[in-house]
Write a structure and sequence with these properties.
Length: 116
């Protein structure tokens, strides 16, 4: 048990370090709280954001559902990035997920999994 906890702590420290270092070289970085649920959500958001105009790098942390985005301020803005996340189907801070995009997500990735 103690070993497991130590492993988790080391893992978290490593993750945090990696993210901070990855983004150190970028001028413009924002953190956006999303409604991501699982690993598929993480992959979907990171992939779609990386294809979005002006995005240089995007990494989502599933522990707190916060996506860190490095972007080019000449090509995009925090508002546009949140809009893009909404269009993928997820909440982005105060911007609510686009309903149609959200409904297209697999059931396990939706905000409220419907009761059976
Ligand atoms: Cu998911």
């Amino acid at each position: 048990m103690r070993k497991l906890i130590a492993l988790i702590i080391v893992g978290m420290a490593f993750n945090f370090g990696a993210t901070a270092q990855d983004f150190a070289k970028y001028d413009k970085v924002i953190k956006v709280k999303t409604s991501a649920v699982c690993k598929m959500c993480k992959e979907r958001i990171e992939r779609d954001l990386s294809l979005t105009k002006g995005v240089e790098k995007a990494i989502l942390n599933l522990d707190d559902k916060v996506v860190t985005v490095a972007y080019n301020e000449k090509k995009t803005s925090p508002e546009k990035l949140k809009e893009a996340i909404s269009k993928i189907g997820y909440d982005a801070d105060e911007v609510i997920a686009d309903q149609k995009a959200h409904d297209r997500l697999p059931d396990c990735c939706q905000k409220d999994v419907k009761p059976h």
